[in-house]
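Summary for the steering committee. One of the milestones for this cycle was to obtain a three-dimensional model of the protein with copper (II) ion bound, which we needed before selecting residues for the alanine scan. The sequence and ligand used are listed below.
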Amino acid sequence: MDRRKFLSSAAFGAVATTAVGKSALARLPEPEIQTSAATAPPRMPDSGRPYNPVVTLNGWTAPWRMNNGVKEFHLVAEPVEREIAPGMVARLWGYNGQSPGPTIEVVEGDRVRIFVTNKLPEHTSIHWHGQRLPNGMDGVAGLNQRAIPVGKTYVYEFVARRPGTFMYHPHADEMVQMAMGMMGFWVTHPKEAHPAINEVDRDFCFLLGAYDIDPGSVVPKVNTMTDFNLWTFNSRAFPGIDSLNVRHNDRVRIRVGNLTMTNHPVHLHGHEFEVTGTDGGPTPPGSRWPEVTTDIAVGQMRQIEFIADEEGDWAFHCHKSHHTMNPMGHDVPTMIGIDHRGLVGRIQRAAPDYMLMGERGMADMGEMQMLLPEQTLPMMTGTGPWGPVEMGGMFTMLKVRANQQPGDYSDPGWYAQPAGTQAFEWTGELPEPARFKAEREAGSTPVKVEMRVRKPQGGGHAGHH
Ligand SMILES: [Cu+2]
């Protein structure tokens, strides 16, 4: 159905209530608890103003009930089990059964009431990142409200005043609760055609997350400040992250929020995009320029848009290469160029599990049949149609297909590249490298070592670095 018609026919009056209506709270809305980490199809609004719903990557949108013109949601803060990727389930804290919690979708001008029940072992609160709201609804424990005690339910209520992309997270024992996975997305759709907000065919959202979970264990270390070992899109690591499946020539929007402790330059292959919004609102159209990578700082949201006009399977990932790896990648010494011959056998006599890695780079890790402790993801993993992808963490794919039907978000499988359009092996003669040629003509034997280490010579600043 055409969204323009939807919008122009929408005729919902503003709700005049200004204070929390205590009589309306007699019965709480039933919270929807999610047990799956799959990407749920878009939840079409069944009441209130119409809008084009988002798709939360490996997540879902919360249901609401209408109560005298107020949209009521129920979030339950609680310990959850989240499958980070097949083979690894983490014990996190989240909302309504998962981490992140459900995406909240409302329309500009909606009056929203959110019941928050605390089933954690300690107090909590929720801050509605980026929202215009009364000071007492901003959720900073101690500053704006008392923290929600264990076992209690608090009510937040405000009008979603401006359209855009927001996040929610605790503002009480924040370091621990966010390290444990407590966060969620919030989208406020425009109530009518907006000069800086495009109508799009596909609208995806997810949060960047980071965890420090020792191989073999299940609970994040909450005091870690920078040295995380699991990098996630919506608490999923590749190959556990679903692909973003779109139809050729769709206008696609992807909203990405960062609630980790470091920045993430998110990079899309095969297309240029524009940043069309931040958590501060839509960017003015005249301020936009083409990019293929956009850096998302801590506590920021970036909304990118592009026309998916190149068919194929396109990588979409954080460009920090350590963030496209799973645990074990960080403490491995660099072994490139070290000759280990004879050494492995001797070490294995003392340590039978010892495995040699990294002598020729680390690409072998993608294929290695290594016995991993339970609850541990391989460092570089995922298999594509042409072999190991050698990625982990913050990596997925944009799949663009001519025959992906509107509204179909299912995985179309691997792209069938047209004949003659793939990189191929050169089997002809190779010209002699000029350097070797010069050495031969000078009478010396070409050196066959592939890599030569050159140390700085002499003192001062004369050496090469
Ligand atoms: Cu990153």
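Key point for the committee: The CA atoms of residues 93 and 181 lie 6 Å apart.
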